[in-house]
Amino acid sequence: VSTVFLSGTTSSVQVPAGTFAEPTEVSVSVSSYPAAGAASDVLQMYVGATPTKAVQLQLEVVESPNGRRQQEQEELVMRMHWLDKTTENWVLICSDQRLDETSSKLLADVPPSVFEDARFNSVASSCAAGVDCQGKGGLFAVFDADASECIQEEDTGGGAKPLDGSTIAAIIVPIVGAVLILVAVVAYLRLRSSRNQEHLKYK
């Protein structure tokens, strides 16, 4: 595992062995992008290629601007987000995340799908006004989020979908075929056994 630390902070990025198919440039820095309501510094991260597995971000968190509201509403939790540079909206990352209260760090696994999303490191032609889109990477930050939001997203977006007719047919037809073959074999063996018994009777 390779660990890259942010200068002047205790935040870091952990890149597991085998994350990239070949040697790849990875750079991280603290961004000056104004993220109102963030509970951490804004991390700017550039990767020269899409990772093949999750990259772990460890961002040092401060008391959230909604800290009092968090205490009053248990459903609010701190979660990692990435900036959609085409809309300038922060997107919640639904992944394994936990807050280490000892080190005051949020540990979050960032899946490859974030890095390969065109909105993460968008080109200038599709960039929102006021966002740096010069190919220097994407932005991450910690915000309050509704604890049930990822659950709802999994239920509606990543949950099991009804099987269509072709899929059902692809499953049922081989099973029916195997059953028919088995029935035919059993019938043949019974017929053969019956003939053998008759042969012995009249011998």
Written account of the structure:
By secondary structure, the protein is an alpha+beta fold. The protein has four helices and ten strands; from the N terminus they run βββββαββββαβαα. The strands form two sheets. The protein has a five-stranded antiparallel sheet with strand order 1-2-5-9-8. It has a five-stranded antiparallel sheet with strand order 3-4-10-6-7. The protein starts with a strand and ends with a helix. Mean pLDDT is 79; it is low at 155-164.
Task: Provide key terms for this protein.
203 residues; alpha+beta; 5-stranded antiparallel β-sheet; 4 helices; 10 strands; 29% helix
Give a quick rundown of the structure:
By secondary structure, the chain is an alpha+beta fold.
Per-chain topology:
Blueprint: E1 2-5, E2 12-15, E3 26-31, E4 42-47, E5 55-60, H1 67-72, E6 76-84, E7 89-92, E8 97-100, E9 105-110, H2 112-116, E10 138-146, H3 149-158, H4 165-201
Antiparallel strand pairs: 1-2, 2-5, 3-4, 4-10, 5-9, 6-7, 6-10, 8-9
Helix content: 25-40%
- Proportion of beta-strand residues: 25-35%
Shape: elongated
Counting helices, strands and paired strands, the structural category is: alpha+beta
Could you give the count of β-strands?
10
Q: What is the number of helical segments per DSSP (H or I, 4+ residues)?
A: 4
Tell me the radius of gyration: 28 Å
Write down the overall mean pLDDT. Answer: 79
Largest β-sheet summary: 5 strands, antiparallel
Residue runs with pLDDT of under 50 for 5 or more positions: 155-164
Distance between the termini: 80 Å
Would you list the SSEs in sequence order as H and E? Answer: EEEEEHEEEEHEHH
Strand order of the biggest β-sheet: 1-2-5-9-8
